[in-house]
Amino acid sequence: MDKDIELIKQFKSGDKRAFEQIVQGYKNIVFNTCFSITGNRAMCEDITQEVFIKIYNSITGFKKKSSLSTWIYRITVNTALNELRKKKNEFIPLETNINADEKLKLEDVLKSNEPGLTGMEKQEISEMAQKMLNSLPEKYRIIIVLKEIDGLSYNEIADTMKISVGKVKIWLFRARQMLKEKYNSIDM
Asked: Considering the entire predicted model, what is its pTM?
């Protein structure tokens, strides 16, 4: 965090390389968070660029009320959601996308932690997980992404989403329950 504050100070004093360091430090986080929300690589590339343009244009007004990472998460989540709303992305029901064979593969992977998965198997599992994630309502999907994928604390999620820690816990519980129900409802 001290490094981030120092980079912001350097950027404010005219050092453009400081912003490049911020981009390098956060580009993967921004892209991965965006992908977890949208499930669309091409869209995420555009959104990632848009996020960093927004950061560049507004970083001089960064007030240090939260950490730079929380501020960047907030911009990323809001930008991704706004883009989804513009595209009117419809969520496809999980039941029509995952068959019994896919469920068995996922169960095997979840029960065993075998490192010997092929690239194709990892991709299939990733795509199925994304389908499950996309089947959730927006607020629950974001909570799962920020907690389970990005590893943010309850306080960081609350700051990012501008909700209480109690609401974070409730939404996270509900999101996990919904995923569990959807997973269990797949016909075997």
From this structure: 0.67
* Tens digits of residue pLDDT in 104-160: 343 443 433 445 656 666 666 667 777 788 788 889 988 988 888 888 899 999 988
Q: Which token pair is 23?
A: 């981009």
- pLDDT tens-digit map of 44-80: 999 999 999 999 999 888 877 788 898 999 999 999 9
**Domains in the chain, number:** 2
Is there a single domain that holds both residue 77 and residue 15? Answer: yes
Domain that holds residue 53: 1-90
